[in-house]
């Protein structure tokens, strides 16, 4: 699927399920790691993880697009567009969107990586889902000392 086809698909889903046109950009972004998609508050664009399509197929993709469109339409309408907002939950239910921004990985919904162990010598990075004591481990590549860094809490997905 190309960016252009994705754009068309998002426009179709927007009109059919939300009754409102999607007037911004939809595109694949191969740099997305843990999420299937995200909505960008500043530009109002929607980005989809291309690996998600490969791993979960097109039906799941539609669920992700609906999820992102819930953020999109509610944000533009100045209503509750965050996951915790009632508006968001209701709209998501109505259109049958994915409950979560699907994780990409082994085909299951997973915890996102919240921590990173960084090697002070070679710069190697090890992503971790749980907090770890960096003093108890060494870099697997060069045996250097590690430091723990908390990753930014996920942006609005
Ligand atoms: Zn190292
Ligand atoms: Zn989301």
From TrEMBL:
Subcellular location: Cytoplasm
SprT-like domain residues: 4-149
CC annotations in GO: cytoplasm
Keyword Zinc listed: yes
Molecular function GO labels: zinc ion binding
Textual note on the cofactor: Binds 1 zinc ion.
GO BP field: response to stress
Active site (record annotation): 68
Named cofactor requirement(s): Zn(2+)
Binding site for Zn(2+): 67, 71
InterPro entries, sorted: SprT-like_domain (IPR006640), SprT_Zn_ribbon (IPR035240), Uncharacterised_SprT-like (IPR023524)
Family label: Belongs to the SprT family.
NCBIfam families (UniProt xref): PRK04351.1
Name of the protein in question: Protein SprT-like
């Amino acid at each position: 699927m190309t960016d252009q086809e994705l754009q068309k698909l998002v426009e179709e889903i927007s009109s059919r399920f939300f009754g409102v046109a999607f007037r911004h950009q939809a595109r694949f972004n191969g740099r997305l790691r843990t999420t299937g998609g995200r909505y960008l508050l500043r530009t109002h664009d929607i980005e989809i993880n291309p690996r998600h399509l490969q791993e979960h197929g097109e039906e799941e993709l539609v669920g992700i697009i609906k999820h992102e469109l819930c953020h999109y339409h509610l944000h533009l309408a100045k209503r509750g567009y965050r996951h915790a907002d009632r508006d968001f939950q209701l709209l998501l239910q109505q259109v049958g969107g994915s409950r979560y921004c699907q994780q990409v990985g082994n085909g299951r919904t997973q915890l996102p990586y919240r921590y990173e162990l960084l090697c002070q010598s070679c710069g190697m990075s090890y992503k971790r889902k749980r907090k770890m004591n960096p003093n108890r481990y060494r870099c697997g590549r060069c045996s250097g000392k590690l430091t723990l860094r908390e990753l930014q809490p996920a942006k609005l997905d």
